[in-house]
């Protein structure tokens, strides 16, 4: 008799849901996740409360958009979320965890996409909740000033959501840099130099075309999203959001290309 071997399908198939669950467990189990998110929330809320408690109608800031004034701390909070985005990818290369991840998911790209999806959900939810609480808390002190506003006022909710989206998309750019460069210090330096410093340097050039292009650079586009009224010289919210999404997509595409072509 000839024995025939029967093959039993493995119950441990790699699925999208399981890859997402794995990345969620990794993200929430890291102490750095909670430190950076809480730091970002504390900075946004703290600066917002300072703005609310110290504001006076005759102080010369009445022309500043209310949402921009209250959420001024987002400029500091976004740095914490950007660092977290870099840590999500680059830190796995420094610890060697990436080898285990890519061994389990040899197609590689699902790992990057799952990291980006989980991080986006966590970062946007955190920043949106923080921005809402900060705005409402600051308005407790601004209710009798010319900066008094409510969530139902034109453009306010859009600007609050836009501020959270801007920080999240900037951090996705950082996440892509972390995967492409595979170094936490190198990725932080690249983000500071390429995203924060380079537009300021290009802005010194005396060309109108450069000024027009700069309105669609990441930080400038993110700033346009967080204002309830049009900012002078800034892009409209729709084009600004599209530009920021394209920047984040380009960063993730570069990361995917490096991930596919280089060994872990």
From TrEMBL:
This protein's name: ABC transporter permease
| TM region positions | 34-55, 67-90, 111-136, 156-181, 188-207, 240-259
Q: Which domain of life is it from?
A: Bacteria
Which Pfam families does the record match to this protein?
Answer: ABC2_membrane_4 (PF12730)
Keywords of the record, alphabetical order, are: Membrane, Transmembrane, Transmembrane helix
């Amino acid at each position: 008799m000839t024995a025939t071997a029967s093959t039993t399908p493995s119950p441990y198939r790699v699925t999208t849901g399981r890859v997402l669950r794995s990345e969620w467990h990794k993200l929430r189990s890291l102490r750095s996740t909670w430190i950076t998110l809480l730091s970002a929330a504390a900075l946004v809320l703290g600066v917002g409360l300072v703005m609310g408690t110290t504001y006076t109608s005759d102080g010369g800031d009445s022309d500043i958009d209310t949402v921009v004034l209250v959420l001024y701390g987002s400029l500091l909070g976004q740095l914490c979320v950007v660092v977290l985005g870099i840590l999500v990818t680059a830190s796995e290369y420094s610890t060697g965890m990436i080898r285990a991840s890519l061994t389990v998911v040899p197609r590689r790209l699902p790992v990057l996409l799952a990291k980006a999806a989980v991080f986006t959900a966590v970062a946007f939810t955190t920043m949106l909740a923080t921005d809402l609480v900060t705005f409402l808390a600051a308005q407790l002190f601004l209710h009798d000033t010319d900066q008094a506003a409510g969530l139902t006022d034109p453009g306010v909710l859009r600007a609050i959501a836009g501020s959270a989206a801007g920080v999240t998309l900037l951090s996705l750019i950082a996440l892509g840099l972390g995967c492409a460069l595979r170094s936490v210090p190198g990725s932080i330096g690249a983000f500071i130099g390429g995203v924060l410093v380079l537009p300021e340097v290009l802005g010194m050039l005396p060309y109108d075309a450069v000024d027009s292009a700069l309105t669609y650079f990441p930080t400038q586009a993110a700033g346009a999203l967080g204002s309830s009224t049009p900012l002078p010289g800034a892009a409209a919210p729709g084009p600004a959001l599209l530009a920021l999404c394209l920047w984040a997509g380009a960063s993730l595409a570069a990361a995917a290309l490096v991930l596919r072509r280089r060994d872990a």
